[in-house]
Fold this sequence. Notes:
Elements: H1 2-16, H2 18-33, H3 36-63, H4 89-109, H5 119-150, H6 155-175, H7 178-181
Helix pairs in contact: 2-3, 3-4, 4-5, 4-6
Amino acid sequence: MSWIIRGRDLIIGTIKYLPTIFIAGSLLIGSMTGIVPILILGLTTAFLALIVFAFQFIANASIGTNISLLEWFSSIGRCEGSTEILVSTWSSVTSFVLFYLFYNALAIYNQTPANGASEQLIANRQSYMISTMVGLFFVALILLVYRINLGCEGKVMGVLSIALGGGVAYSMWSLVDIKMGDVFQIKNNMVNTSATGQTTPVMCVAPPH
């Protein structure tokens, strides 16, 4: 049974440090592979985390420990070791990443194929994106329920954090071109140039693994 306990502790620890894993993983993978969209995602995630951290520092310095009015707007007293007010670093960062990936998948799904593209390949691309969006939805739901059960996300705090993360994700996605911001790297693999230099119809498939 010890391996079950260790596995449970590993999962809980992974969820607890998910924002750090997102940031470090994106920066590391983006730097090592040279995939700019992943690097952009990591840098933006780190910037958002710093903004929320700075806000928490100012809020705690200004308000101190007098939380009679803020109990409803914070996780203080409900989540062990938490002193966050109004917005949660964990929820803001996690929401940003999940929303950004969702917008990315939706944009790839809605891409207009070139004339002559295989209907089967188009269906493959769209099915891949649908499964990605459904997966992201259930991951977000599981994580949200987990955090609520921990008492780390109050109603107001949770809504504000998700709104912040989602808003930054939408703004960021709106600023980058789909080819520049495609974390899945499907856009870059949709057009195949032959040895003659002529462009063949859109491939519309996920990149090979």
